[in-house]
From TrEMBL:
Keyword set, alphabetical order: Signal
Keyword field contains Magnesium: no
Signal as UniProt keyword: yes
Annotated signal sequence range: 1-20
Name of the protein: SGNH hydrolase-type esterase domain-containing protein
Length: 230
């Protein structure tokens, strides 16, 4: 696992997601821990397995606000709702940006990438930067961002866009106020080396239970290593 404080958790695994254009909440059970909350897309929400596995690891059910099909702007809204309802929020587990690519009008399957696709990736980076700064200003201690893994088969052409995103997003986390001035940090987790095709469902996007187990443990390992509130 490739983990450093400035770049740990990454872009992307979580939102890759997503079912074409849906924005509905499948898995948001009652939580007993609101100072750790999940925001993101269907990587978290579609099956709910990551939340359940984190429950097994932590002994707590973290509040999950993720919504399948959500784009990056919607994920900022999820955060606003989380901090508005829980001003004591300490740790945010996030992902996002995949649906901006999967549902957007830009061609992100061409080689080389189109300017429209590059612009989409840059927009997601800008919004991630805003979100991380909001967390710092609101007193959140830590954000662990689950990046995306490589898609397979019918969706594999989008992996070049994913690789391009990983050339940009680490600096967003490295330069985040949470890292530079905060008590905790912003961590980007890159699961590309850890998820294999057999751990992706037949939709070629979402993780199987085995894949979710890998992702949840990558998140948990960072939480433990960085001694975040958990």
């Amino acid at each position: 696992m490739n983990v450093t404080k400035s770049v740990l958790l990454a872009l992307v695994a979580g939102s890759l997601l997503f079912t074409a254009g849906c924005s509905f909440d499948l898995n948001n059970p009652n939580a007993d821990e609101y100072d750790v909350q999940i925001i993101g897309d269907s990587i978290y929400d579609y099956s709910g397995d990551i939340q359940d596995i984190l429950h097994d690891l932590s002994g707590k059910m973290y509040k999950d606000r993720s919504v399948s099909g959500e784009k990056i702007d919607g994920i900022l809204t999820q955060y606003d709702r989380a901090i508005g309802n829980t001003p004591s929020l300490k740790t945010v587990l996030a992902d996002g940006g995949g649906n901006d690519i999967l549902q957007g009008s830009a061609d992100c399957e061409s080689d080389p990438l189109t300017q429209g696709c590059i612009d989409t990736v840059d927009y997601v980076a800008d919004r991630m930067e805003v979100l991380l700064e909001d967390m710092y200003q609101d007193g959140v201690d830590d954000c662990i961002w689950l990046g995306y893994y490589y898609l397979k088969d019918s969706e594999a052409e989008k992996n070049e866009a994913l690789d391009h995103a990983y050339t940009i997003y680490p600096s967003v986390f490295g330069d985040a106020s949470l890292n530079l001035y905060g008590a905790g940090g912003a961590y980007l987790v890159d699961p590309r080396p850890n998820i294999v095709p057999s751990q992706i469902k037949s939709d070629d996007i979402h993780p199987t239970y085995s894949g979710s187990d890998v992702l949840a443990n990558l998140i948990w390992n960072v939480m433990v290593a960085e001694d975040t509130y958990r």
